[in-house]
Amino acid sequence: MSDSQESELQLERLRQQIESLTTDAEVLVDRLSQNLMAIHVASETLLIALGQGESISPQELLESLNLIKSQSENAIDRLRDARRRLGWDPGQLGR
Q1: What is the DSSP string of 18-44?
Q2: Which UniProt keywords are present, listed alphabetically (predicted)?
Q3: The dihedral of CA 40, 41, 46, 47: what is its sign?
Q4: What is the pLDDT of residues 19-75, one digit of tens each?
Q5: Within a 10 A sphere around the Cβ of 75, how many other Cβ atoms?
Q6: Where are the domains of the chain?
Q7: N or C: more exposed end of the chain, with fewer CB within 10 A?
């Protein structure tokens, strides 16, 4: 294989890697956006209700806080996975 062909092959591999990473990044951003939106909505709903003096049952409060916790954990897990794939130290996230 000539140097030119070898270079073309390497260039094509790089293009494919970039495409794959771009797709992974788009999926990650979409999923993180969903997590953050769920956290935002749950937090805002609680803040509005509490700010207006509405009564919130312990069960409703627990459900909202569990949703916030779950969505936060999912977002952190996704970021750790992305950092791992990039070769970054996932243990540093959140510190």
Answers
A1: HHHHHHHHHHHHHHHHHHHHHHHHHHH
A2: Coiled coil
A3: positive
A4: 998 998 899 999 999 999 999 999 999 999 989 998 889 999 999 999 999 999 999
A5: 19
A6: 3-90
A7: C
